[in-house]
Design brief:
By secondary structure, the chain is of the alpha+beta class. It contains 6 helices and 7 strands. Keywords: Transferase.
Length: 204
């Protein structure tokens, strides 16, 4: 069976493990999904400028990902950014400058490619920190670009997100678990359409 190199099996996040990865105790925030805001790309540019000013050449790559990076897609009003640095585990080399710039470390996951998440309150941001070669940032870009092109999947994803947004989630990962089946199926279509990597169907 041919398998895209970015494929991974369908699975829901273990909420207990997620809780253990959290740093500190941020207050719960109601998951609110709103129509697309054309100001979101500019919000990303503000965040990107702050990150680049703080880290300089330590920024290897920086990408606007997630739903706010897809024109026309309903989303939480939270800018998701993927940052690649040489070694996320070497926090002394990148974390203090970001903290001085207003970012707060919220998640530390050494077992998942040394993933870290920092937040910023204005614009509201989740900054994901990864090492070179981590597959997840590449998955995020593939997913973003597919939704930018495919109106059917974009509209289906928006409808699901709006419906879930009315259910009053206060845990973002629980909300993500309720999107997971559709997200997996979108990835399957994106993988199958990638001319660079043959991929046979991998049903859930």
């Amino acid at each position: 069976m041919r398998t895209h190199p970015l494929w991974r099996p369908f699975a829901l996040a273990d909420l207990a493990e997620v809780a253990q990865a959290r740093v500190g105790a941020p207050p719960p925030r109601l998951v609110t999904v709103v129509p697309y805001d054309p100001a979101w790309p500019e919000a990303y540019e503000q965040v990107a400028a702050r990150v680049r000013s703080a880290l300089g050449d330590a920024v290897l790559t920086l990408e606007h990902v997630g739903s706010t990076a897809v024109p026309g897609l309903a989303a939480k009003a939270v800018v998701d950014v993927d940052l690649t640095v040489a070694d996320p585990a070497d926090e002394a080399s990148w974390l203090p400058p970001l903290e001085r710039a207003g970012f707060v470390l919220r998640v530390r996951e050494p077992g998942w490619d040394e993933h870290r998440v920092l937040t910023l309150e204005s614009p509201v941001t989740n900054l994901h920190v990864w090492p070179p070669g981590a597959p997840e940032p590449a998955r995020h870009v593939l997913f973003r670009d597919w939704l930018r092109r495919d109106a059917v999947d974009r509209e289906a994803y928006a409808a699901l997100k709006l419906a879930l947004g009315r259910r009053g989630f206060t845990d973002g990962m629980d909300y993500n678990n309720h999107k997971a089946a559709l997200v997996y199926d979108v990835y399957e279509r994106a993988f199958a359409a990638d001319p660079a990597h043959p991929h046979d169907p991998h049903p859930r």
